[in-house]
Amino acid sequence: MIKTNLFQFNRIAQDKRARAGVFTTPHGDLLTPVFAPVGTQATVKAVSPDQLRATGASLVLSNTYHLYLRPGADLVAEMGGLHRFMQWDGPMLTDSGGFQVFSLADMRKIDADGVTFKSHIDGSTHRFTPEKAVQIQEDLGADIIMAFDECAPPYDREYNQRAVARTHAWAERCHTAQSRRDQALFGIVQGGVFPDLREQSAEFISALGFPGHAVGGLSVGETKAEMHAMIEVVDTILPEDKPRYLMGVGSPEDLIHCIRRGIDIFDCVLPTRLARHQAAMTRTGRINLMNAANAHDPRPIDEACACYTCRHFTRAYLRHLIVAKEMLAATLISIHNIHTLVSLMNDAREAIIAGQFDHFADTFLTNYTPQAKTS
Amino acid sequence: MIKTNLFQFNRIAQDKRARAGVFTTPHGDLLTPVFAPVGTQATVKAVSPDQLRATGASLVLSNTYHLYLRPGADLVAEMGGLHRFMQWDGPMLTDSGGFQVFSLADMRKIDADGVTFKSHIDGSTHRFTPEKAVQIQEDLGADIIMAFDECAPPYDREYNQRAVARTHAWAERCHTAQSRRDQALFGIVQGGVFPDLREQSAEFISALGFPGHAVGGLSVGETKAEMHAMIEVVDTILPEDKPRYLMGVGSPEDLIHCIRRGIDIFDCVLPTRLARHQAAMTRTGRINLMNAANAHDPRPIDEACACYTCRHFTRAYLRHLIVAKEMLAATLISIHNIHTLVSLMNDAREAIIAGQFDHFADTFLTNYTPQAKTS
Predict the structure, then answer these.
(1) How far is A206 from A199, CA to CA, in rounded Å?
(2) Domain that holds residue B91
(3) How far is A292 from chain B (nearest CA, A)?
(4) Phi, psi (degrees; rounded to nearest 5) at A328
(5) How many other C-beta atoms lie within 10 A of the C-beta of residue B3?
(6) B372 exposed, middle or buried (CB, 10 Å; 0-12, 13-18, 19+)?
(7) How far is A264 from chain B (nearest CA, A)?
(8) Closest in B70, B75, B323 to A316, CB measured
(9) Residue A204: which residues within 8 A CB-CB, separation 6 or more?
(10) 20 to 30 A Cα–Cα from A244, which one of A43, A348, B139, B250?
(11) CA torsion sign, B16 to B20 to B22 to B23?
């Protein structure tokens, strides 16, 4: 375990379970709650770093599995690390590759020591162990890195018991393997939808002394009520003076529900994936910009939005770009969607600091119409 | 014919036949020689207006044929015109739709009054006449608009004789049809590779009193020597106090050769099309960024280049984006390629003003290796 003072987490306000904080990293302070857009392959799809910065985004996630396969963590290291390679000079986070590897289904085989898997790109065989996952993430050089874990199907109790045991053993090995002092290694809590397993996992992982903790294995098929219940279980156990990161969650309503339950950090492909499927995210719900109703609409996506897209472009223009299959559509809608989540986080933070988070959340949830996932 | 003082062309320097000028338009001054990137469907592909501005580009071309079909010139007019629709507040130029319509081959039928054609999108039947081409361009609202012309295969003398006669009759009708005072209507010279037809066309078009003139029907299959010879013919006839626009030409060596022969304005899809095919344009030739040689290359495309892409990104990163099929590749390479042509034009202008254009052009052409077209 690396002892360091780099990664201070100061809770500057708490409103019931909702927290507003400052998490110090080598590439700048993260004001929490914070939403991280995803740059799977060392780029947030269709968005340049300067456009991303202009959305207000502060933290970017990249995927260890993808970068390991292409272009290779050694190449990224040779180019001075991920920040320099992709020219994002703010805080970055990499996942451990675990989730992607386990998602390969038939193309991977798990044992106590690690996972052997086939590349989705060329079918070549590779192996991740906890030590390898840490080594790759040290080569990439993100500010926040993740322990190698096993994400089990949420309703399979026996599988989750085994996965929790393995995740714990691997967390300890990652802990031991870490050699860089300028990266915060987060432990991950697993346990499916089973409160006792979540409790056991939160207690074990908390005891290892990580500078931050993640909740994994949620938003993978369970109900919203189950997701909320699991977060409530771990919230009471994880140390309050360290940041909590809910992996892979990014719908506006989920963000608000989970901030209310003590989560500080989120990431999700949703804003950029929806953008490539013509859906704009707003404070009141989603808009399918392909709809004919937008063809002659001179309004921006959201008249209250301050993003580059809304300050400049009409729905009619965005719909034209979509119909004409112009790449700029994905860029402009991605910019808007990321800004929507980033500004929602900023407003949530202000509400927590003002001691009015409940009112903020209730008002938001009353006005918001969740929709069926379009992707 | 609209008489207006809006479109002043001041030649501030001339070095043999090469000219440096200022062309005043309602959306700002164009410093000539100038290269216009092409925004076929109301967007320069993969580049946002602010990114485009940062390349130094001053003039943008859009295509009447494409915008007429989609989203429709009436919609663009309803949205306040093309500048506002696509958020380009600098000078714009639209072509007449003639070149695209004639390129439809079997899908169009020409008569003395105009052209009936089928949409490449849905096969629906449409008709362009000189009056219609002006009306559409008035709806779009570019600063510079073009007369409706017929572009014939370069080596067919009989066809070119008919096309020149038709182009002249249509130029007069466009002249008469123009109703807006804030657009400069340019006449177009045709004539294939036949000096006498070019001469006849330049004389006829010049006599109509347009505020600027274009040379059409070049870079369509003839040799470079023939292209240069045709420009030399019209250079001696077109009035020197009005700008000359060579349509559809944009390779660096062609720009230099044609500035030397008295051309002021150029447009071409080349920089953005090459970018989408992984080719970077430099002052010395093209680089295929997909080449394995770039995989570990920490240099920018061009160490002397000041564009956003070269100030930030390595060839290794650009190649990674290409291999990973990330949209950002097209954006970053397009930014670089446009900047390369824009900065080449700026340097050519400085050389003309300094009375050293021959030296500049000779040095450039000595160092430049033209390549086979990759698109």
Answers:
(1) 10
(2) 9-269
(3) 12
(4) -60, -25
(5) 7
(6) exposed
(7) 30
(8) B75
(9) A168, A171
(10) A43
(11) positive
Q: How many CA atoms lie within 13 A of A140 on its CB side?
A: 36
Please tell me the distance from the alpha carbon of residue B209 to that of residue B214, in angstroms, as a whole number. Answer: 13
pLDDT at B98 over 90: no
* Contact of B187 with B213, CB cutoff 8 Å: yes
Q: Is A363 a member of any domain?
A: no
Q: Give the position of tokens 């309803």.
A: B78
Helices (H), chain A: 49-54, 64-69, 73-78, 82-86, 98-102, 130-140, 157-177, 195-207, 224-235, 252-259, 270-276, 308-312, 315-323, 328-353, 357-367
Q: What is the pLDDT of residue B102?
A: 87
In whole angstroms, what is the distance from residue A85 CA to residue A76 CA? 6
Task: Retrieve residue A141's tokens.
Answer: 């050089």
| pLDDT averaged over every residue in chain B | 96
B267 is catalytic: yes
Mean pLDDT of B121-145: 97
Which CATH number characterizes residue B155's domain?
3.20.20.105
CA–CA gap between residue A61 and residue A245 (Å, rounded): 12
Q: Supply the pLDDT for residue B103.
A: 87
Which residues of A belong to the active site?
A: 95, 267
pTM of the predicted model over 0.95: yes
Q: Phi and psi (nearest 5°) for A142?
A: -65, 165
Give the model confidence (pLDDT) of B217-269 as tens digits.
999 999 999 999 999 999 999 999 999 999 999 999 999 999 999 999 999 99
A245-276, pLDDT tens digit by residue? Answer: 999 999 999 999 999 999 999 999 999 999 99
Structure tokens at A192: 């499916």
Instruction: Quote the number of domains for chain B.
Output: 1
Beta bridge partners of B246: B215, B266
Residue A73 belongs to some domain of the structure: yes
ipTM: 0.96
Asked whether residue B19 is assigned to any structural domain, the reply reads: yes
Q: Quick check: helix, strand or coil at residue B79?
A: coil
Distance CA A34, CA A20 (A): 9
Q: What are phi and psi of B45, to 5 degrees?
A: -50, 125
> Which amino acid, one-letter code, is at A100?
Q
In a domain, B241, yes or no: yes
| Contact residues, chain A to chain B, C-beta under 8 Å | 41-43, 45-51, 70-71, 75, 78-79, 85-87, 295-296, 298, 308, 312-314, 316-317, 319-321, 323-324, 326-328, 330-332
Amino acid at B356: Q
**pLDDT one-digit tens code per residue, B3-44:** 556 899 999 999 999 999 999 999 999 999 999 999 999 999
Q: What pLDDT, on a 0 to 100 scale, did the predictor assign at position A373?
A: 44
Closest CA in chain B for residue A48 = B328
